[in-house]
Automatic annotation (TrEMBL):
It comes from the Eukaryota. Residues 41-199 form the Reverse transcriptase Ty1/copia-type domain. Pfam families: RVT_2. It comes from Phytophthora rubi. This is Reverse transcriptase Ty1/copia-type domain-containing protein. Coiled coil: none annotated.
Length: 515
């Protein structure tokens, strides 16, 4: 979707109606109010009275104002939305369950890659005022009439539909959408319950939908897609906002997110030295983690190191976080770039992965770090950099633990692809440790590995059943190496390129020249 400008809009209705854009804001407020009435969101009733010792709560609301802009910051429209103060809801009275599944980002990326491979278009469809399509059941909720539209009657709204701000709004919308998707023949994917497979035309008969055209913006990602040619995913605007928020717009740049061989810092025990409220450390780390999950896996190891200090961060930790921002400042136009080969072979998809571990890397627990990269036809799509759950007493054992986690994700991707109708070759796992490779290749009793026998046997059984193949890769060629340790600038740049992270602007220019 097009990004919403988070600054520049008035904070209150009063401020909006005093501004030079009074007419635009008044029209936006009226449009949202009429939409609420059109959807039958509530009915007006007399204010309820408490009875039998039970206090009846009437929730309050707020108008949230936004200015919607295009990628060049031109104003598209003024938008108002009525939001309920859901934080005032009480469990067991105004709500029960709230969980609502969403599709995984890695699943969305896989779908985009399949579209690129097959030369398909990728459309972006928006259900207008989605939450207002869901019936509210099982609870009774009263809400004050919207400010500016109350008519002075003293009556209140009895909610009949979901509305933005309700704790359960996303859940009941998901239930509504799921029921209709199944009704018109969609099939929910077993390996990601946020993915449905079928066609979309029949959805238009149920919901008011807007075709936003070829997908260009999604979840803060900038998407440049030429069907059958190139797919580029980047977040330059997101990075710019980060740099502005943390006062780094004019910072010097760094060639890598960490110093070469930089070790993880020990956790600070002195409480007087941690959690300075003047440092927005947790907010920064959280926003960097989202960047990793979408388009910038090259900062995964650095941000993992930062994340372990979220509970007790210091100024030194914040300095390390600012280095990541310095690196991003110099690579703000970088992202994931996928090019479709000029000659695409018909038949099965190739699915493989690189696995790596850095033994006893954590200075506080001596636990190792696992990292892996998943690839589809040489396109990277799945990444992981994570501290292992237990201490291992040997390098190859930590590699075995990392391989086990990688295989789980590799097989998940295979099953997901097969469920949406793709044919996949037997997946392959690349490991750079020969001892771990030996244990994974054959089921057997190996001296000194009783504790890890289950992990090795599980992989070995997959190999024997011809559901997985294994291959040794030199450490110098193992892409996952950059997800487990801090590398020097030259090696980091090499592996970053193999990972598929490169200058998106350069990729677009090259595509235009080749056209």
């Amino acid at each position: 979707m097009l990004e919403e400008q988070l600054t520049g809009a008035p904070d209150t209705v009063e401020e909006a109606l005093r501004s030079p854009q009074r007419a635009e804001w008044q029209a936006a407020l009226q449009a949202d109010f009429e939409s609420l009435l059109k959807h039958g969101t509530w009915k007006l009733v007399d204010r309820p009275k408490s009875s039998s010792g039970k206090r009846v709560k009437v929730l309050t609301t707020k108008w949230v104002l936004r200015i919607k802009r295009d990628e060049n910051s031109n104003v598209l429209r003024y938008k108002a939305r009525l939001i309920i103060h859901g934080f005032k809801q009480r469990f067991g009275f105004e709500y029960w369950d709230t969980y609502s599944p969403v599709v995984r980002i890695v699943t969305m990326l896989l779908v985009l890659l399949i579209e690129l491979l097959l030369g398909l278009d990728a459309r972006h469809i928006d259900v207008e005022t989605a939450f207002l399509n869901s019936l509210l059941r099982g609870v009774t909720i009263y809400v004050e009439q919207p400010k500016g539209f109350d008519g002075g009657t003293g009556r209140v709204c009895l909610l009949l539909k979901g509305i933005y701000g309700l704790k359960q709004a996303a859940r009941i919308w998901y239930q509504t959408l799921r029921a209709h998707l199944v009704e018109i023949g969609f099939r929910r994917c077993a390996f990601d319950v946020g993915l449905y497979v079928s066609v979309i035309e029949e959805l238009r008969q149920k919901f008011v939908m807007k075709d936003l055209g070829r997908v260009k913006h999604l979840l803060s990602m900038e998407i440049h897609y030429e069907p059958g040619r190139t797919l580029c995913l980047s977040q330059s605007a997101y990075i710019d906002r980060l740099l502005t928020e943390f006062g780094m717009t004019n910072t010097s740049t760094a060639k890598s997110p960490q110093m070469h061989n930089e070790k993880m810092l020990r956790l600070e025990k002195d409480k007087s030295k941690v959690n300075d409220p003047a440092l927005s450390y947790r907010q920064l780390v959280g926003k960097l983690q989202y960047l990793i999950s979408c388009t910038r896996p090259d900062i995964a190891n650095a941000v993992r190191c930062l994340g372990r200090h979220a509970g007790a961060y210091t100024k030194e930790n914040f300095t390390s976080a600012k280095r990541v921002l310095q690196y991003l400042a110099g690579t703000r136009m970088y992202g994931l770039v996928y090019r479709r080969p000029s000659a695409v072979q018909d038949g099965k998809l190739q699915l493989y992965a690189y696995s790596d571990a850095d033994h006893a890397n954590c200075p506080d627990t001596s636990r190792s770090i696992s990292g892996h990269v998943l690839k589809l036809n040489n396109w990277s799509f799945g990444f992981k950099s994570k501290k292992q759950n237990a201490v291992t007493d040997g390098t190859w054992k930590s590699e075995l633990v990392a391989a086990s986690t990688c295989v789980e994700n590799l097989l998940w991707a295979k099953e997901l692809l097969e469920e949406i109708g793709m044919t996949v070759e037997v997946p392959k796992l690349f490991i750079d440790n020969r001892s771990a490779l030996k244990v994974c290749q054959t089921v057997g009793n190996y001296e000194g590995v009783k504790r890890y026998a289950k992990l090795g046997h599980k992989i070995a059984e997959l190999v024997e059943a011809k559901e997985l193949t294994l291959e040794y890769v030199p450490t110098s060629e193992n892409i996952a190496d950059m997800l487990t340790k801090a590398l020097g600038p030259q090696r980091f740049a090499l592996l970053r390129e193999l990972l598929g992270v490169e200058d998106v602007a350069g990729a677009k220019l090259q595509q235009d020249q080749d056209a």
